[in-house]
Every structure is written in C-alpha cells, then in structure tokens.
Amino acid sequence: MTVNTRRFTAMTAFLGAGALALTACGSGGESPGAASAEPTETADAAQTADAEASGSLTVWADANRAEVLADVATDFEADTGIAVEIVQQDFEEIRDQFVSQVPTGEGPDIAVGAHDWLGVLVDNGVVAPVELGDAAEDFEQIAVDAWTYEGQTYGLPYSIENIALLRNTELAPEAPADFEEMIEMGEEAGTEYPFLVGLDPNESDPYHLYPFQTSFGAPVFGTADDGSYDSTELAMGDAGGEDFAAWLAEQGEAGVLNLNIDGDLAQESFNDGSAPFFLTGPWNVTAAQEAGIDVAVDPIPAAGDQPAQPFAGVQGFFLSSQSENVLAASNFLVNYVGTAEVQTALYETGGRAPALSESFEEALGEDEIVAGFGEVGAEAVPMPAIPEMGAVWDDWGASQAAIIKGDGDPVELWQKMSEDIAAAID
Amino acid sequence: MLTSTTTRADARALDGRRARRTAETASLGWKLLLLKITVLGLLNAASVYAAMVLFFNERWLIGTLVVVTGALITWIYFQRGALPAKYLAPGVTFLLIFQVFVILYSGYVAFTNYGTGHNSTKEHAIHAIMLQTQDRVPDSPTYPLTVVERSGELAFAVTAQEGEVLVGSADAPLEAIDGALVEEGRIVDVPGHTVLSFTELMERQQELSTLAVPLDEDPNAGALRTQDGQRAYVYTSRFVYDESSDTMTNTESGETYTDGGEGAFVTESGEQLMPGWRVNVGLDNFVRAITEESIRGPLLYVTAWTFAFAFLSVASTFVLGLFLAIVFNDPRMRSRRYYRLVMILPYAFPGFLSALVWAGMMNQEFGFINSVLFGGAAIPWLSDPWLAKLSILIVNLWLGFPYMFLVCTGALQSIPEELTEAAQMDGARPFQAFRQIKFPLLLVSIAPLLISSFAFNFNNFNLVYMLTGGGPRDIEAGINVGSTDILISMVYKVAFVGAQSDYGLASAFSILIFFIVGTISVIAFRRTRALEELN
Amino acid sequence: MGESQPQRTSMSGRSFRRWFVQIGWRHLVGLAVVVFAAFPLVYVFSASLNPGGTLITANTLFGNLSLQSYVDLFNRPQQPFAAWYLNTLFIGFTASAGSVLLGALAAYAFSRMRFTGRRLGLIGIVLVQMFPQLLAMVAIFLLMLSIGEIFPAIGLNSQIGLIMVYLGGALGVNTYLMYGFFNTIPTSIDEAARIDGAGHARIFFTIILPLVSPILAVVALLSLVATLSEFVIASVLLRDPEKQTLAVGLYQFISQETSQNWSVFAAGAVLAAIIPVVLFLALQRYIVSGLVAGSVK
C-alpha cells in the first residue's frame, strides 16, 4: 500500500493543488449581482399539483450552500413530491467532477458553481441553457451577463462577489481619493504597512491587482459590441498596460507591493491592526470584525487616471445537459432557488451580495459592508470565462511577480507576456 | 537461492522441534475446507449473478470475463497442484481489476482525442449542440403554458397576448381554439384535450423537454418550447441536424458542417463546431507528445532535474532513514519508543497540510526559517531557482525519511544480530562489520523499495505542485516551465493548464514516462538480482 | 524494549565517556531528529489552539490557548467530523488488514515456491505501480460505476468499494518488503513441519506468519497511513458527507474559497494523527522487538 499512498497523494495533490491555485485567483470569483423575486406565482402553480410526482433531483453543492438548499429541497418535495438529493461536494472540485461525470450519466441534474467555469462547461457540452424568461429582469444585470456565454444564459445566479478596499476606521478615518493618498494616509497612520494585498512570491495575484491595472486603462480583453469580452482582442498589451507595468515595478521597489505577504498573512496583519487598508473581498470581513476591527468598505483607489474596476465573480446554479429531469430541475431553480426568500437565505449564510435585485437591495439597505462591496461591484466587470483563462492567469501572474521583484525591464516583461498570452489564446 | 542465513545445527534442531510441536497442536483441516467451500460458493454465486446481469444487458465480453475468472479461481482452489496460484490469486485479482485495468484504460485514452471539447459520445455532442443553439427570439413574449394531451400526443395550450387560447403540437402549428377555460390567467380546460397534472408532466418530462411546437407554417418563425412546463418561449434553432446525411446546417449562414472523422462537425474551410466527441485518433497524441514545442524546448533541462530530484530524494531519505534505524536499533538505548514515535509523525500527517506549512515557513520575509532561525535574513527559499530546488529536497526529506526509517528498521530486524557479533569478534570495527555483513543483506530486501521509491519520486507531482508549483518560472522562456518542474508536472501544465484539458495527450505522456521509468527500473532490478545472489 | 544501563548520577567520568560513545550520542541524534520532525507540526498544533488564526505565520507559538476549535469540530452538522473519524477507522483498518493478508500470501508464494514467471511476476507487480496516475481517476470512476450497476453495495458511494480499490494496491512494494523478510526465515522450518505432516496452509498461517510479524506490523502501519492520507479516490467515490473519510472532510475546511477554517482544520488534523500514532504504539513491540532474532535462533 505504500506505493499506493504515495500515488494517491500525488493525485490528491494534483487535484488539490489545482483547487488551491484556483482559490488563489478564483476566490475572487464572484461579484455583484442582483436578484429579484420572480417565482411566487409559478410556485403556487406547482403547489396545486398533487404531491406525488415521481422522480428525484440530484443537486451538487458545497457545504455552505447545501445547508440552505436542504430547506428549499424540503419545501420542493412537500409541494411537488419530487425528492431532491443534495450532494455535498467540495466547491473547487465541482467543475472537474461535473465535466467528467455528466457524460457517464452519473452527474447531478443541478450544480452550484462560479460563472468563470462556463467556457469549460460549454465547450464540453455538459451544461444546458436555463431560460430565465422574464425573471432575468429581476436579477442584477451583471449577474445575468456573467452567466451568459456566447449569447445563451446558462445559470441561475445567486451571488455576486468582488473585492473592495477595507479600511480600519481607527487608523484611517477618511476614505482615500486615490492610490497615492491612500499610501500617504497609511504612512501617517504609523502602522507596519501602509496597505495590504495578498500576493504570491511566484505568481503575484492578477485578480487582486486588476483594479489598478484597469485604472491605467488596460483591461484584459477588448469589448465586443454586445458588451461581452472579445477574447480575440487582448487589450492589456497597449500603452496603458505598459504604464501599469512601470507602476508595478515602482511599487515593488518601494515595498508597497510585497510578494511575500500572502492572503493569509495579509488578513492576519490587517486583523491585528498592522495596516489601515486591505484590498480584499467580503470573505475576510467577518474575521476582521471578530478581531475587533471597525471596518469600512471603500471604493478601490485608482492608481492611474481611470476608475479602478475589479473583477466580479458570480456564483450560480447550472443545469446538466444530460439531465433526465429538466422540467423538475428548472422548476426547482427558477421557482424555488430564484425566490427572494432563498436568495436572502443564501446571502445570510455566505455573506455575499445576492444576485436577485430584490434581495440585493434588501441586503444593501441592511448592511453597510454589503452596500460598500455592492457599490464597488457596480463598477466591476465579470471575470472572463473563456476556457483558456487558466493559461492566461499563469502567464499574467508570473510576469507581474517578475516585474514587482524587479527582474528586468517592466515594459519589456509586460510586452513579452502579452505576446505569450496572445499566442496561448490562439 | 535465498534461504537460510543461519545454518548452524542447533538452530536447525530448534526449528524442527518447534515445527513439530505446532503441527501436533493444529488440526484445522476440515475447518479450512469448509471455509474454502463457503467462500468459493459465494464467489461463484456472485460471479454467476454478475454475468447474468451483464449478458442481459448484452455486455458479452465483460460477462464472459466474469464467468471465466470465477471458473478459474474455483479451479485453482479445487485441485491439488498450482500451489503458487492459490497464494497469488487473491492479490492478483484485485491488482488486475484496479491497477492493470487503469493502465490499459489510460493506454486506450492515449489513442483518443479525449479532453475539453471531446468529452463524450457523438450522440451527447449533438444533443448539447442542439440545446446550446436554441436562440430565444429577441423581444418575443412569454406564453403562459398548459400542457395538454390528445390521444397520447403532447400538445401546448398557451394564451396569446390578446388573450386568445392557442393549441399546437409537434406536427400541428399553433392554432386558435374556442371554448377553452381560463382561470386566473391559466388555461384549465381545453376542448378535446386532457390537461396534464404536474405528476403526469414529471413522468413525461423527457418527451416534453424535446417538444417544439411550430409557431406557424413558416419554419423560420420559430417554435415554442418549455423548460419548466409552465411557460413557453419562442425559439429558433441555429443548427439543424440531418440524420441521413449526418450533417449539421447553420440556418443563419446556410453553412453545412460534416463529420470530418476527427470528432467534431467541421465546415469545408475547417471551422469546427464545439462540442465534439471522442474518437480514436491513432498515434496523433504520441506524435504531438514528441513534437510538442513547449515540451521540446526545456526537455533536456527538465529531464536532467527530474533524474537528479528523484535520485537525491531517494538517496537522502534512505541515508537518513537507515542511519536513524541503526542508531535506534540498539537495545541498550533508553526511551527509543518516544523518539520513534515523534519520527513517524511527519509521515502520519496529511501531506497537503505539511506542504502548506513548509511553504509558510519558507516565506522569504516572514517565514519561521528566515525570521527566527536566520535572524531576519531574506533568503529566497522558494523564489531562487537553486534554493527552490534545495527547498524541495529538504521538504521531501522531511516527508520521506520516516518511511525509510520504518522500512529499514523492519529489515534490520530480519538480520540476525550474531552475524555482526561474530564479525566483531573476528576483530572488525563496528562500522566495517556493518558495511560488509549487514548492509549487503539489508540491500537485498530494500533495493526493490529504493527502485520503487525512485519511480515514485520521478512522478512526485504532489510535492512539486504543492510546494512551488514548479516555480520559480523563468519569465524569459515564454513557456510555462519553472526551475523545479519535473516531467510529470510539466506534462500536467501542457495537458491541463494550457488552453484546455487534454486527457489524450496527458495519457500519451503518461505512457511514455511509464516506459522511461519502467526501463530504468528493469535495469536496476537486474542489478539487484546480482545482489541477491551474493546471498 | 530492552532497557538497561547505568544511572548517570553515579557515573564516573570514564564510564560517562564510555556511555556516551556507546549510547549517549544516540540521544543527541534523537533530539536533533525530534526537532526536525516535530517542529512544523508544533506549528499545526499551535494553530489548532488559536481559533480564527492562520497557519502560515504562527511564529509566536502558543500565543493563544483555546480548545474552541476542537469543540467547533464536533458541532458542524454539515461536516460530521465524528462520522468521518469512525469511517476512517473502519476503512483504514479493513484495508490495512486486507493488504497485509494479500501481500503476505503473495510474498510467501514468491519466497517459498519456484514457478514459471516468478521473477517476472515479482518485477511486474512493482512495475505496474510505477504508472503515473495522472489519469487514474477517470478509469477508476468508470469501473466503480459499472460495478455499482450490478452490485450497488460495492459500487460508487460505498465504503466497501473504496476498500476494494485500495486492495488493488495490496501487492506491489509491500509484497517486496515482505518477500525480503520471508527469505530470511530458513526453509528448514517449513521442511521440518512438512515432514511432520503439516499442510501448506497450516505452515503458512501457524508457523510462518508469527515469525514474520515485524514486517507484517510495518506493512500494516504503512498501509494504514496510506489510507489515512488518501483523499482523491475517496472524494470521488464517496459522496455522502456521512460516508466520507477524514482526509476528504478535512480538506474541505481549507479548500473553500475563504480560508477561515485553518484552526479547525489544524485541530482535525491533530486528532486524525492520533490514529497512526496509537497504531504505531500498539505495533511498536512487533516492529522493533527483535522478535525474529529470538525465535529463529
């Protein structure tokens, strides 16, 4: 068994590490969305049906989502007689398992996921479009956009996630207007670091640094007529990108961007009051508040002369293309999961802005933190979902790390990266 | 051959006495027989059942295999000879099913285009294309829907915007119908039709989900479809599949896609329609594996490091493990059990956690190693090409030495102590006695494990990926290969991280690497045979 | 274990030097190894006592001492830690016992019998395990899927099925390890028993197995540790949270997008490590007692 052990762990690592890598850039993956209630009327219709329909649904969800869905599933079964089996899966594993299991007939009818998986899911033919119908208008525009791939909507969005600037109000009473001001304020605060963002020594973190990049007018891709990405046009190699590269090198030299501070360390340092500012997502807020920090959420200060737009990630539920229970599954999604009640419940467990507009507004009104992220999210753009993003993140991050470390001329490195990425996408 | 290491007469006499005594006390013959009959009976019952199910589903090959295996095992245990087979059969059966099959399957995958976009069967691909290319007509209204049935055929009854009720089925376009009863915006009764209950809908959901009711006689006007049985929308199909000619036609551009034999529908100009499906592609993957640009460039460098890494990992863990096994094998030493206990801890801990902890400790600025042990030095453990190599070896030593320690301790136990004592009495120094007498004996039992450990480290994707991700990467190279990448992690990047997953290519690489490692191992085994014969 | 040796307090300088040359230095080596082996793990332990903290920078060890994470571990309905623990014990011990048995049977055949293909078989079983398992999961999943269609009890989502997959690796290196050990048991023992009329099965089970118990203990421990830390196959084959194993479950704590559960994860890992430690304690007598020397001589 020894060899086995090792073999198994090797596999583990490979899947696990993949997952970790994803966490690094993908954890940002959800962004602001909107949700609204639509379903009550249809839910009633279903309720009138007699409660003994045959069949059952299988739903894959991660532990957090599973909890909420279990309640929805009970309602659904009571109303329709269709049992819903919630299978708990590791979030980061769902995509790959879904791709490999759906063709065998073992996959679920519905799974939860992030919108940036869409490229892979669609290219593999494992997802079916979800017709939101008029309900689409009840969701935040960005949430539906994110789940739209090549003109089709593939999921029922439920939460939107993006990064914003967390501020320790004791150390910095005012929100900074731009990056320079933030650093000045940070230095005045006299803390160990003026500003924190989690990076990686070899891979930097293009996701977290993206708002600064966009503030130099260097979005990753050009935009097509319908507002979606035109992935054939890599836009970040332009002049704006070069300015951003030069800025990265400067900040690296000044020690403002420190590759040795990873996400966990940044979180810990912010929580013990070692910095007034922390660029991160809603997932780190609870811990900061528990640590006794009075947190405010501010817009991300621009480093260049344009607005700083972060990436948005939208989580949602999608349908298997091989599902034999399409009718039941879309009923469950559109008429149950899409309700304000469920969207709010999901928000309450996950802490991320709901995608349904009604719940979104409600959450915004109730909670300053969510409102803060929501406001920044209004500026956000969905993360690209093309299947080649894996390669793009890799090249992007490694080059950023080299530039921040000062390994060579920033502009040359940036241009080299753009060429490599353009070649990888082709 | 390799038999007794002690040939002293008194030992033999002792053996004889001991064996005789045991033989007298044990007479379990009939119990064993009963056990044998029961186990084999159950096994045969199971295999017959499995074969029946398989035959019933017309899976003749596997069914036959099951029957043959069952019969073979029964034969092995119910005849007098074939003693080795009796001992080997259980383990080998599991080995064949769960390991050999896996290799054969990967071998098979290596000859296919399995990967992103070629993930399933042609049937599934067509189904998915049809699903993905149903475009809802822009700005078309939502039709509140009631599903009805007439002589077993499903039909849609919808309310048009003006309030009139329309009925249509797959063959009959929508037509107004009089006398339908509408309550609270829903159609509850349609003359000549039966309204289906929710339960009935669920029973026929497959049929319903493929039902398209033409809007009118003009096929280009689109068709009503429903996903939830309560609302219908107008869709046009961007693609039409023609079964007889096996072609896909784009209704907008009029272009025709044919099955080009490469697992996807393609136009004449070579444009592919995704998703495709799995097909056999012959040696294509192997050709690509050998000619792949991103592999060929750094191949020599990565191969050299892979060998160095595997060799150094085995050598370091073995030397440390053996040294410790010897140190703690002295019965005069107190508290050995506690030392041993702590030593197995690295091995007992979940590996992924250990790698993460080490990565944290090796952080250039904040890690324990730099900030505490080296008093705040900024040693780039994981981001300098050479230090990263060293770090990976150190961590692998930490992870691997307990295994070698255990194995060496076990093996040392098998070597009679008096051999060394005799040598020492003859005037040999302890180290000499060890090197000349115990060590060769030890190697006989350990050498195969070292070879296998080498093979394992050759493919130690786990550690490389968790600790450094192959990095630090040489940004100038333009290829995503870092200075700690070994062959398998480079293959992983080429086959999975690049554009898309390519299981076919990855399998081809796996097979090639298997041949490399296998060849080296067979050569090494030949040398251990020489060792064995020392004995 | 053999204990002996003089009291340090009553030792003269000369005998201390002798003690040190023979024994004392071993303690120094032991201490060095203990530090090397344990210090990353001390981090983990420290993190488990520091709820809400992270793992990476616990440079101030044991700055906080709270058992909260251990309590939390057992109070998560979606993550039934107690069930995982029991599952792991069941799967680990069954698979480990099975591996030892299958491996020992095969090692006995290779060591004592001469048959065609013996040499080839020995190399073959090790070679088979050298295949880079980059793609094993797809094949194993499909295989278990088909088995499950016929015998649902041992197919997907079944712990027995998982154990069977683990047993597929029962031969291999462990057989080699045992084979080497079997070879050191003189064949004269078998011969004598055979002359006395004992059958091959009786010789194997009642005479040989007790003699090779040290290596059986080593293999049992190696197998158990293997099963404990395996999580890829387990996570694909076992779906219900109540059926999963510790490794799969624990990984969930940290693989979620937000890494807030480091402390709980560390607590779980510490508890998980108790299994191999206890087993090692239980088996240590066999592993290191020099039993063979005593019985063979």
TrEMBL record, chain B:
> What SUPFAM superfamilies would the database entry show?
MalF N-terminal region-like, MetI-like
Q: Which Gene3D superfamilies match?
A: D-maltodextrin-binding protein, MBP, MalF N-terminal region-like, MetI-like
UniProt keywords (A-Z) are: Cell membrane, Membrane, Sugar transport, Transmembrane, Transmembrane helix, Transport
Q: What is its main location?
A: membrane
Residue stretches making up the ABC transmembrane type-1 domain: 303-524
Q: Which PROSITE patterns match?
A: ABC_TM1 (PS50928)
* InterPro entries, per the entry: MalF_N, MalF_P2_sf, MetI-like, MetI-like_sf, TM_PBP2_N
Which superkingdom is the protein from? Bacteria
Q: How does it sit in the membrane?
A: Multi-pass membrane protein
Q: Which residues cross the membrane?
A: 28-54, 60-78, 87-111, 299-326, 338-361, 390-412, 439-458, 503-525
Localisation: Cell membrane
Q: What does this protein do?
A: Part of the ABC transporter complex MalEFGK involved in maltose/maltodextrin import. Probably responsible for the translocation of the substrate across the membrane.
Question: What family is this?
Answer: Belongs to the binding-protein-dependent transport system permease family. MalFG subfamily.
Q: What name does UniProt use for this protein? A: Maltose/maltodextrin transport system permease protein
Organism in which the protein naturally occurs: Nesterenkonia lutea
Automatic annotation (TrEMBL), chain C:
Task: Give the record's keywords alphabetically.
Answer: Cell membrane, Membrane, Sugar transport, Transmembrane, Transmembrane helix, Transport
Task: Name the Gene3D superfamilies for this protein.
Answer: MetI-like
Give the membrane topology, semicolon-separated if more than one.
Multi-pass membrane protein
CDD domains, sorted: TM_PBP2 (cd06261)
Q: Which SUPFAM superfamilies match?
A: MetI-like
Q: Does the keyword Transmembrane helix apply?
A: yes
Q: Which residues cross the membrane?
A: 20-45, 84-110, 122-148, 160-182, 203-228, 262-283
UniProt key word Membrane = yes
Q: Per the record, a Pfam family?
A: BPD_transp_1
Q: Where primarily located? A: membrane
Q: Where in the cell is it found?
A: Cell membrane
Domain named ABC transmembrane type-1 is located at 85-283
The text of the family note is: Belongs to the binding-protein-dependent transport system permease family. MalFG subfamily.
- Would you tell me the protein name for this molecule? Arabinogalactan oligomer/maltooligosaccharide transport system permease protein
Source organism per UniProt: Nesterenkonia lutea
